[in-house]
Amino acid sequence: MRTILPILSLFIVATLVSGCASSRFYRLPAKEFTNIDYGYPVKTTTVRNIHIAMIDEGRGDETIILIHGLGTNAKGWTKNIPVLAEKYRVIALDLPGYGKSDKGYYDYSMSFYAQVIKELMEKLGVWKAVLIGHSMGGQIAMTAALEHPEIVEKLVLISPAGFERFTEGEAAWMKGAMKVDFIKDTPIRNIDINLKANFYDYPKDAEFMITDRIQVRGASDFENYCYAVSRNVWAMLDGPVYMRLKDIKQPTLILFGENDGLIPNPYLHAGFTKDVAQIGKSEIPNSSLKLFPQCGHFVQFEKAQETNKAIKEFLSN
Domain of 116? Predict the structure, then answer.
């Protein structure tokens, strides 16, 4: 999930670290994306002739839209949905290109995803919502707030992409490195390393992130998923928001793990996560920042209880 490019940096990490994944990973059978168990009923609707899959829980008067990051899906929110659904309607979608949603050669961009969220809300009869985005999902949420402010009540940005700046040369290098075949041919041992790098202290109940990712290598639409990941890297680089942060008017909560190994990008930028986080806090006018100690990039999973508490307190004000 480095602010704009976490996945690429993880792939690089994996090529530099020796060691093997558990032998049981090599015996996992192939699985279609549609056969992954999310632990919740999954609904579908159609937006722009794209089938969108989502978890839809809770019946509150206010609605929360959960937007996942690069390479992941709605299942990453399973520790947050039940708590937030006690008071709110909670919709965790699979973005086009991911999970159980359609995967195709779409015109991927941050604006494309923001428009999809807007039209999805209209389809569901939701006219205003709190957008909670993780990593790339944070940049999508900010784009939606900037381009469609009328649909966004509040923002929660968890380890968001979009605060860290990249030069034209850095962007060109990252685009050149993030090819479809590069993602498609990632060895099992590297998948193991990549996903564990999202955490400060890898929790055992996060192992599904590894096993699911390994199994879908045999899915019929896996190459289209790899295309989505590749083009989404381009989309983040081509749709920066850091120069427009001051124009975000919605109340905003920013959450980061102090030990995020992906932000800032260690291969291109020195520094500390708190410094990147502070950029958002200082630029977004009506914002607050909370840093969680002993926590990595996947804040909402590794520090689920603290994340849920912070979100509930923010939304109650």
Answer: 6-316
Which residues, 6+ apart, have CB-to-CB distance to 24 below 8 Å?
none
Is 1 part of any domain? no
Domain membership of residue 205 (yes or no) is: yes
H runs (alpha helix) in the chain: 6-16, 81-84, 110-123, 136-147, 168-177, 180-184, 188-196, 208-215, 222-238, 273-283, 299-302, 304-316
Residue 200's CATH number: 3.40.50.1820
Q: Rounded CA gap, 237 and 227, in Å?
A: 16
Cβ atoms 151, 121 nearer than 8 A: yes
DSSP structural state of residue 25: G
Beta-carbon contacts of 203 under 8 Å, excluding residues fewer than 6 positions away, are: 301, 302
Report angle CA 118, 314, 74 to the nearest 5 degrees: 45
Please choose, from the candidates 88, 99, 72, 70, the residue with its C-alpha nearest in 3D space to the C-alpha of residue 232: 70
Whole-model pTM: value is 0.93
Other C-beta atoms lying within 10 Å of the C-beta of residue 9: 22
CA-based radius of gyration for the chain = 18
C-alpha triplet 148, 149, 155: angle, nearest 5°: 110
Q: What total number of domains does the chain contain?
A: 1
Residue 263, amino acid: I
Residues 93-152 have pLDDT tens digits of: 999 999 999 999 999 999 999 999 999 999 999 999 999 999 999 999 999 999 999 999
Of 214, 215, 222, 208, which is closest to residue 190 (Cα–Cα)? 214
User: How far is Cα 211 from Cα 205, in angstroms, rounded to an integer?
Assistant: 11
Query: Does 114 map to a domain?
Result: yes
